[in-house]
Write a structure and sequence with these properties.
The complex is a heterodimer of chains A (301) and B (277). With 301 residues, chain A is mainly alpha-helical. In chain A, strands 1-2 form a two-stranded antiparallel sheet. Chain B has 277 residues and is mostly helical. Chain B has two domains: 54 residues; 209 residues, Orthogonal Bundle (MetI-like fold). Chain B contains 15 helices and no strands. Chain B starts with a helix and ends with a helix. Classes of the chains: A mainly alpha (301), B mainly alpha (277).
């Protein structure tokens, strides 16, 4: 009895000892900063001089800042287009690959590779492909008979679609998630449906789609969260400017400018919190809506 | 009849897959092709696919324009810190959360889980202020010390894995008088090699590709990493496409080589976690 208690105490001691390095880092680099960011968002602070408390000043300024709305609108543009487009593209690819095609590993590799290329390198590559005069994309468009192809990243109207193209090129990891999901759908369901004489389309609608809704839900939620935070691609392609004419100034790029170009740490903290709240609300709504369309299998067994 | 229909279906599937595969692959081909071209071959229309003559100069010239060798060493230094933090700190922490019973353990784990949802930009500003006060800006410490202390997400993944390993081995070792540290190192580490490899690959990719961290914390050219160095190089030599493609190729190739040797872990990792490295 006493011995058991001794072992328990020893086990607990080992636990606290082993988590100490992480716990220290966690307190200093995660918990502390989360709390501090609330504080800083109510101050004016340029690092050089001590922070001064300004109450809701930062938030008032933010809500009357035209670039806040512009950058939010640009970000929403990407969320609304990139998330569904990459889901549809990835799902279509996964469906094609799931038909027991020969050469699956080769196809899978080709579609997946772009998504592991470092953002800086892939952005530079695409700037070259989209180069108006000598780039490959416009070369292809010209040979298809488009006499006056867009100037892409140099154009206020075409810069955003160009960025969407770059992002879609790198969406291969979503395809892998779908492929794994499709391979997890029990084959017996399809066999039963086939016996009942269900057509391909109805098998897709009544088996594949419902069984895939949890995976779709997961990628939708993660996709929205990560697209709201799009930064590196836009930074590299526009050299941090969000141009031309702020047409690609996304929210985090503007936050970066406020924080690390103007050194307005209070204002940038307020911006971070506002985005955090928006993401939280959207995620919450998604989880609330999930029961309507996401099909969760009742525990087998 | 049915047979022919099936065959046509197959053919169409392959046609679409090859067509799309072409679209996904062509950028790589053009990247490599451009890297081996002289200025004169680059700016021609319609574009040339196979450079003639093949020019190697871009790959050597890159090093004259910017200290990419230095950038590589800096990047590797940060990569090693990430790998050590993942394989040692995250693994040990994950082991503790999965297999050691202690009061408050589950509550602490809940806190850990809940902070995984907090976006990085919320902590970014206070962390920057902290490092600025410590006068760590423009040193490698902001990019090395936090990863050495572990990454919440990898801890979570490893913990989930350690939960699935049966306890018999631990108990037997305990009876023999082994300590917990020894059990972790000699029993659980070898058993978790596949998942450790997966997590290590993601950790490597994260450090190799990281742009935001170096951008924010480093401002001295000598300290740049490959990704930041490449970006600064491109801002300075915007139209030197041959050089840019050569530098980009050198940054991409290690990742692709790694992928080909560890495909299984990559695919497993992606499907397990649903994230990009």
């Amino acid at each position: 009895m006493l011995n058991l208690r001794g072992i328990r105490a020893r086990e607990a001691r080992a636990f606290y000892l082993f988590i100490t390095p992480w716990a220290l880092g966690f307190l200093i680099f995660t918990i502390g900063p989360i709390l501090a960011s609330f504080y800083y968002s109510f101050t004016r602070y340029d690092i050089m001089s001590p922070p001064t408390f300004v109450g809701l000043g930062n938030f008032q300024e933010l809500f009357s800042d035209p670039l806040f709305y512009k950058s939010m609108a640009n970000t929403l543009y990407f969320v609304v287009l990139v998330v569904p487009l990459s889901m549809i593209l990835s799902f279509a690819l996964a469906l094609l690959l799931n038909q027991q095609v020969r050469g699956l590993p080769v196809y899978r590799t080709i579609y997946y590779l772009p998504s592991i290329v470092p953002f800086v390198a892939s952005s530079i590559l695409w700037m070259w492909l989209l180069q108006p005069q000598f780039g490959l994309v416009n070369g292809a468009l010209r040979s298809l008979g488009v006499s006056n192809p867009p100037t892409w990243l140099a154009s206020e109207t075409w810069a955003k679609p160009a960025l969407i193209l770059i992002m879609l090129w790198g969406s291969g990891s979503t395809m892998l998630i779908y492929l794994a999901g499709l391979q997890g759908v029990p084959q017996s369901l399809y066999e039963a449906a086939e016996i009942d004489g269900a057509s391909r389309l109805s098998r897709f609608r009544h088996i594949t789609l419902p069984m895939m809704t949890p995976t779709l839900f997961f990628t939708l939620t993660m996709g929205i969260i990560s697209t709201f935070q799009v930064f590196t691609i836009v930074y590299v392609v526009t050299a941090g400017m969000g141009g031309p004419l702020d047409s690609t100034l996304v929210y985090l790029l503007y936050l970066f400018r406020q924080g690390f170009v103007y050194f307005r740490m209070g204002y940038a903290s307020a911006m971070a919190l506002v985005l955090f709240v928006i993401i939280l609300i959207i995620t919450f709504v998604q989880f609330a809506l999930a029961p309507i369309w996401v099909y969760y299998e009742i525990e087998r067994r | 009849m049915v047979h022919a229909r099936k065959w046509i279906g197959r053919a169409i599937t392959h046609l679409i897959l090859i067509g799309l595969g072409f679209v996904f692959f062509v950028p790589f081909a053009f990247l490599v092709s451009t890297a081996f071209k002289s200025e004169r071959q680059i700016f021609v229309y319609p574009p040339i696919w196979i450079p003639n003559p093949i020019i190697w100069r871009n790959f050597t010239d890159v090093f004259d324009y910017a200290p990419f060798g230095r950038y590589l060493i800096n990047t590797l230094y940060i990569v090693v810190a990430h790998l050590f933090g993942t394989v040692v700190t995250c693994s040990l922490t994950g082991y503790a959360f999965a297999r050691l019973r202690a009061p408050g353990r589950d509550a602490i784990f809940m806190v850990l889980l809940s902070t995984m949802m907090v976006p990085w930009m919320v902590t970014l500003i206070p962390v920057y202020i902290l490092f600025a006060r410590l006068e760590w800006i423009n040193t490698f410490r902001p990019l090395v010390i936090p990863p050495l202390l572990g990454n919440t997400f990898y801890i979570f993944l490893l913990r989930q894995y350690y939960m699935t390993i049966p306890y018999d081995l631990d108990e037997a070792a305990l009876m023999d008088g082994s300590g917990y540290l020894r059990i972790w190192w000699t029993i659980l580490m070898p058993l978790s090699k596949p998942v450790l490899a997966t997590v290590a690959i993601f950790s490597f990719m994260g450090a190799w590709n990281d742009f935001t961290g170096p951008l924010i914390f480093l401002n001295n050219k000598e300290k740049y990493t490959l990704s930041l160095g490449l970006q600064v190089f491109r801002e300075a030599h915007g139209a030197a496409w041959g050089l840019l493609m050569a530098a980009s190729t050198m940054m991409i190739v290690p990742v692709i080589v790694l992928f080909f040797f560890t495909q299984k872990q990559f695919v497993q990792g992606i499907t397990l976690t649903g994230i990009k490295g």
